[in-house]
Amino acid sequence: MTAIDLSHRTILITGAAGFIGSNLAKRVLSDFKDAKVIGIDNMNHYYDVHIKEARLKELEEFPAFTFVKGSIADRSLIEKIFADYEPSVVVNLAAQAGVRYSITNPDVYIESNLIGFYNILEACRHSYDGGKTGVEHLVYASSSSVYGSNKKVPYSTDDKVDNPVSLYAATKKSNELLDHAYSKLYNIPSTGLRFFTVYGPAGRPDMAYFGFTNKLRKGETIKIFNYGNCKRDFTYVDDIVEGVLRVMQKAPDRVNGEDGLPLPPYRIYNIGNSHPENLLDFVTILQEELIRAGVLPEDYDFEAHKELVPMQPGDVPVTYADTTALERDFGYKPQTSLRTGLRRFAEWYKEYYG
User: Fold this and answer.
1) CA 147 to CA 69: how far, in whole Å?
2) CB 279 within 8 A of CB 196
3) CB-based contact 94:72 (threshold 8 Å)
4) How far apart are CA 251 and CA 4, in angstroms?
5) 268 bridge partner residues
6) On the CB side of 35, how many CA atoms lie within 13 Å of its CA?
7) How many domains does the chain fold into?
8) Taking the C-alpha atoms of 137, 141, 144 and 150 in order, what is their torsion angle to the nearest 10 degrees?
9) DSSP secondary-structure letter at 330?
10) What residue stretches are annotated with the NAD-dependent epimerase/dehydratase domain (predicted)?
11) Higher pLDDT, 273 or 176
12) Is 29 helix (H, G, I), strand (E, B) or coil?
């Protein structure tokens, strides 16, 4: 692998007002001397835009942060950003997220996840025009949803993933295929990361733990799918960001094969906790931490506010990451326990919502 020092570099992070993007940008700006971060985000209303604005406000305290409001599906804007800033590392986290939303709103997934990603690939390709060094590493978000209804666990990147069960998963698998072709044709060093359920403070309100909290606080009933028998590889956001940072600094090598033609400098990794938790246990710990933080009263009747229901379309019963390749190549394994992570979320929630 080729080492990349992020100090003194210009790094483009798409989806910079998003949950992972904003935390990643903060780490780069805090930890790497004279690193510049260009952030782009369309600030859409898929979830409460105030949370995105709060994340951005924190980033705007860094003089080396530049924000561009716009969509990666806007090709001329992407071309302008690459021409103006000449990023050497690109992290594409901008995407329309959510499995269930893709069932009713397919258009936005095609626009952001396919056309948008294609625009990023094209810009990376043309960054080498005229003999320029161009993009040294493209890192992009894939998803554990590509594993679909695979029965074999833990999920390995060696598994066949040709049977997505949602449009969202299909777009993420498409990203991996498009990137492989571009990596092969234009020698773009690139790494795809299959994220497994990410949670933490200032997270996405559409995620189960956040939605549960909102409902419990209002005294509403929460639905626990598959009668509580779902298992999720919950990964705390700081652990994800640490993993992404390590990956950014090691690009796949550009090497030629026996035929003298370039082998695609392309890698895919799972990035998750590799320790799936039962959804019912997760909700129990969440409830305890919400009481501890003062979000819920001490005598909260949890049993009266939960309903066990069947599985829903597009969902899978278990997500479980085999992360041995990530550990081998980057010496990294997530460290944060579920209780610690949910405690930090509950404390943030109490402070943010009062």
Assistant:
1) 33
2) no
3) yes
4) 7
5) 192
6) 22
7) 1
8) -60
9) H
10) 11-272
11) 176
12) helix
Q: Which two tokens stand for residue 321?
A: 């990451």
Question: Looking at residue 171, which CATH number applies to its domain?
Answer: 3.40.50.720
Q: How far is CA 302 from the centre of its chain?
A: 31
Most confident range, picked from 41-50, 56-65, 250-259: 56-65
Cβ-proximal residues to 182 (8 Å cutoff; 6+ apart), any chain = 121, 124, 125, 188, 190
Parallel, antiparallel or unpaired: strands 235-236 and 198-199: parallel
Q: Are 270 and 157 in contact (CB under 8 A)?
A: yes
Q: Can you tell me the mean pLDDT for 33-49?
A: 92
Active-site residue, selected from the candidate residues 168, 182, 209, 266: 168
The DSSP call for residue 191 is E
Structure tokens at 10: 């210009």
User: Taking Cα atoms as reference points, which of 114, 91, 90, 87 lies closest to residue 102?
Assistant: 114
Query: The domain containing residue 159 runs over which residues?
Result: 2-196+236-272+320-329
- Residue 209 resides in a domain: no
CB atoms within 10 A of CB 133: 9
Residue with tokens 């700081």: 238
Q: Is 168 a catalytic residue?
A: yes
**79 domain-assigned:** yes
The reported pLDDT for the residue numbered 313 is 65
DSSP 242-274: HHHHHHHTEEPP-EE-TTSSEEP-EEEEEES-S
Q: What is the pLDDT of residues 263-302, one digit of tens each?
A: 899 999 999 887 888 888 888 899 999 999 999 999 988 8
Q: What is the pTM of this model?
A: 0.91
Cα–Cα distance measured from residue 147 to residue 132, given in angstroms and rounded to the nearest whole number: 37
Asked if the model's pLDDT at residue 227 lies above 80, the reply is no
Give residue 167's Cα distance to chain centre.
Answer: 17
Q: Is residue 179 part of a domain?
A: yes
In terms of Cα–Cα distance, which of 151, 193, 144 is closest to 166? 144
pLDDT-based confidence at residue 150 (cuts at 50, 70, 90): low
Q: Residue 315 has what pLDDT?
A: 65
What does the chain come to in residues? 354
Pairing, β 190-195 against β 137-143: parallel
